[in-house]
Structures are given as structure tokens and as C-alpha cells.
């Protein structure tokens, strides 16, 4: 589910946007080596990052990892899962952006990007003292093929 | 006690009401205490059971909190189960409910007490996705999806599953799919194709009793009788009875 506007039918009318909710986070399809832990890493739009260790829940048919985290309802968040071994990150999933809801349920998919860290929101920096650049396109137009023919067609 | 199951498909004409009322009738015949809620503003289930009878208290009044659900319950001696009927006013209810706090769970709260008096509650939904259907899903433990194989489209199933996912994430309520009902079939070969497509793409079970298309079903509707009474030996009637047994297991 992407960041695009959610259908209001699926908005919890008992929760004002920004109200804190307990979000159940579930990760399926992951097998850990002995000594490994899996973490849920989440950041809000201010760039504040939180990390939660996930608990293993094993049933007869499946193994899943769970965490309960407090998030702000319908606020933009970025999250990913990471497998840690002896204090070092061994594998990680790709970062995803969503609007926070009651549930995050994912199937484990390790990311091949070597540096899939959660990005902080940054504004583009302009060099100080430099005037804004005015783009000139007229010179280029004169060199465009067919430009004179188009001008001529306007006057015919 | 008090399990709630919704019959849902956003596509109309797939025999949702027919299967809902006949499955309910079969369960009632087998001694189960059944409540059927007609959540369709077109009142298809209400008309099929009661004909042109008008009711003062309907599901509309329950949803607008004018009355308790138990006050709207009407018994059908012919079908053997209880009904909360619908009415055309239901078509305008979404505007009334839209601004209400907890608008998505009004039906669930309304049924909280009355459902404990029944073994099962069936909700016959309208063929649309709106606040009424969302209320049905929030009130339900699981759903069944009748489909018509001749006009089958995987997109319809995708839409329903997408809706369930949105409800899980946005509203925190998980609804299971009990299974898919194949109804109004004419060609056995098409069913095999449809089942193949379903098995390839989904893990949703398909009930083994398929309901053939039959004009006798329409006749039963016009006579306001369940199939097990109107034409028990008709193949569609027998399939509906067997489907009910299969669904209860």
C-alpha cells in the first residue's frame, strides 16, 4: 500500500490523524541463524529513527516475527527490517514508505542494495551568495530542425 | 455461538442472495439458530423471503441507533430463520453515517448483543463497496465470495482481497475468507478452468458443491420459498443443501 491518498472508507474514524496507535508489525518467511536477531527500524518524517527487536512466534504451521510499536496514525513513516548477528547488520530489507496504520505485515525479502539505510528528509541546498540561474532556451530553439518552417507556416 | 459471516461480491448477479437465503434455510432445517441480515438497499433477501411486505423496523433503524437490533428481528416460518429486513431508505444511510464517530463499526456494535442468541449470523451485502459493506466486514469473522464462472474475473477477487487488506491495515480488523462459492454455472469445463486459475493465484479454498444455473431457483424466489421446500430434488436445490453442509463443517 503506497503513500497515495487512502480511501477514507478505510480510515479509522475513532483515530484523529496523528493520534498514537499501537501498530502490529509482522514479518513472515524469515529463518534466523542461531545468535541472530531481527529488528524493525522505523523513522518518521522528522527523521527520528526507532528500532524494535522482534519476537519470534512459532505455531505448528509457521514462524513469524512480531513487534508492537506506537506510531502516529496516517503519518508518513519509513521502515525496514534488519537481521543482526553479533552486533552487526547481516541482512536488511528494502526501505518502504507508507502512511502508518494498525498493521504492517510483510514477507521477508532481503535487499541487494549495499546501503539501503533509512534516508532523513533533506531540503536541497543552494550555494550562498550565488544568484539564481536563469535558463535560456531561445538560442536552442533557433537551432531546432523545422523551427523556421513552423514560423513560416504561422504567417502563411 | 454468534459467528458472523458475510456474503460478499462487488459484482452483482452472482447469486449472492440466493445462496445466502438457501444456505441459511438449510442450516435452520438442520436445527441451527440462524439470523440473516439484509444489508442491501435493494432488499433482495427481504423480498425473496417476505414478498412485498413492508416493515416498520429495519436494519436502517438499527444503524441510525433508533432501535435495538432485537426489535428489528422478524421470524420467517417458511424459511425457518430470523431476519432483520432492509428497506430502500438504506440507500441514503451512508451520508448519515459518514460523520459519525466509529462509523465503520456501527453494525458490529448494533449486533453485539443479539448475535449471541444465534448459532450463526449471515449478512447479505449489497454489490458495492461503501460504508455499509465496510460495516459488514468489520462485523464479520469471515466472508464467503459467490462467483459466477461464466463472467468470472480474477480482478473481482483481487478487489475484494485488496479491500480486506485495506481494512486490516487501516482499521485493524482481520477478516478471513471462508471460501469461494461457484454458482449459476452452465458449463462444467469452464468451472475447471476457473478453479485452475483460482488455485494458481490464491490460497482461498473453493467449496466443492457448485450450484448450477436453474430457472427453478427464480421460481422459488417468486413463491417466497426455500429451494429445499420448493424443489428439493432439483440439482440446484440439492447442490445448495450440500453446500450448506459443507460450509458448516
How would you explain this protein's 3D organization?
The complex is a heterodimer of chains A (156) and B (249). In chain A, strands 2, 3, 6, 7 and 8 form a 5-stranded antiparallel sheet that branches. Chain A has a domain at 8-107: Sandwich (Immunoglobulin-like), CATH 2.60.40. With 156 residues, chain A is mainly β. The radius of gyration of chain A is 24 Å and the shape is extended. In chain A, strand 6 (76-85) and strand 7 form a beta hairpin. Helices cover 9% and strands 39% of the residues of chain A. Chain A has helices spanning 138-142, 147-155; strands at 20-28, 36-44, 49-53, 55-58, 63-72, 76-85, 88-92, 96-99, 103-107. Chain A is built from 2 helices and 9 strands. By secondary structure, chain B is an alpha/beta fold. Chain B is built from 12 helices and 8 strands. Chain B has an 8-stranded mixed sheet with strand order 3-4-2-5-1-6-7-8, with helices on both faces. In chain B, strand 6, helix 8 (154-171) and strand 7 form a beta-alpha-beta unit. The longest helix of chain B has 18 residues, at 154-171. The two termini of chain B are 15 Å apart. Chain A binds chain B through residues 1, 6-7, 9-14, 21, 24, 101-105, and chain B through 100-104, 129-131, 134, 165-172, 174.
Descriptive keywords:
heterodimer; A: 156 residues; mainly beta; Immunoglobulin-like; 4-stranded mixed beta sheet; B: 249 residues; alpha/beta; Rossmann fold; 8-stranded mixed beta sheet; 12 helices; 8 strands; 44% helix; globular
Amino acid at each position: 500500500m503506497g503513500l497515495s491518498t487512502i480511501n477514507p472508507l478505510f480510515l479509522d474514524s475513532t483515530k484523529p490523524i496523528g493520534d498514537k496507535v499501537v501498530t502490529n508489525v509482522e514479518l513472515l518467511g524469515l529463518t534466523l541463524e542461531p545468535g541472530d536477531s531481527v529488528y524493525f527500524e522505523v523513522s518518521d518524517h522528522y527523521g527520528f529513527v526507532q528500532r524494535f527487536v522482534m519476537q519470534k512466534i512459532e505455531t505448528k504451521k509457521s514462524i513469524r516475527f512480531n513487534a508492537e510499536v506506537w506510531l502516529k496514525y496516517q503519518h508518513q513513516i519509513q521502515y525496514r527490517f534488519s537481521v543482526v548477528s553479533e552486533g552487526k547488520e547481516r541482512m536488511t530489507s528494502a526501505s518502504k514508505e507508507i502512511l502508518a496504520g494498525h498493521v504492517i505485515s510483510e514477507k521477508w525479502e532481503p535487499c541487494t542494495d549495499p546501503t539501503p539505510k533509512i534516508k532523513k528528509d533533506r531540503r536541497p541546498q543552494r550555494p550562498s551568495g550565488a544568484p539564481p540561474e536563469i535558463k535560456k532556451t531561445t538560442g536552442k530553439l533557433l537551432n531546432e530542425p523545422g523551427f523556421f518552417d513552423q514560423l513560416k507556416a504561422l504567417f502563411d | 455461538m454468534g459467528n458472523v459471516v458475510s456474503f460478499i461480491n462487488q459484482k452483482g448477479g452472482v447469486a449472492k442472495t440466493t445462496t445466502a437465503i438457501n444456505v441459511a434455510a438449510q442450516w435452520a432445517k438442520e436445527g441451527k439458530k440462524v439470523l440473516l441480515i439484509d444489508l442491501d438497499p435493494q432488499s433482495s433477501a427481504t423480498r425473496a423471503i417476505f414478498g412485498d411486505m413492508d416493515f416498520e423496523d429495519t436494519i436502517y433503524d438499527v444503524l441510525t441507533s433508533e432501535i435495538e437490533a432485537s426489535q428489528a428481528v422478524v421470524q420467517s416460518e417458511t424459511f425457518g430463520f430470523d431476519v432483520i429486513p432492509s428497506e430502500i431508505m438504506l440507500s441514503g444511510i451512508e451520508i448519515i453515517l459518514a460523520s459519525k464517530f466509529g462509523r465503520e463499526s456501527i453494525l458490529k456494535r448494533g449486533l453485539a448483543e443479539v448475535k449471541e442468541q444465534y448459532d450463526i449470523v449471515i449478512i447479505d451485502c449489497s454489490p458495492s463497496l461503501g460504508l455499509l459493506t465496510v460495516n459488514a466486514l468489520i462485523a464479520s469473522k469471515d466472508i464467503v465470495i459467490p462467483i459466477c464462472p461464466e463472467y468470472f474475473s480474477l480482478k473481482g477477487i483481487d478487489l475484494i482481497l485488496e479491500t480486506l487488506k485495506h481494512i486490516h491495515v487501516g482499521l485493524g480488523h482481520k477478516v478471513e475468507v471462508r471460501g469461494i462459492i461457484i454458482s449459476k454455472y452452465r458449463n462444467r469445463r469452464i468451472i475447471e478452468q476457473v478453479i485452475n486459475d483460482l488455485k494458481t493465484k490464491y490460497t482461498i479454498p473453493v467449496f466443492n458443491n457448485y450450484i448450477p444455473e436453474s430457472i427453478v431457483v427464480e421460481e422459488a424466489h417468486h413463491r417466497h420459498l426455500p429451494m429445499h421446500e420448493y424443489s428439493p430434488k432439483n440439482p440446484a436445490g440439492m447442490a445448495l443443501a450440500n453446500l450448506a453442509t459443507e460450509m458448516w463443517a
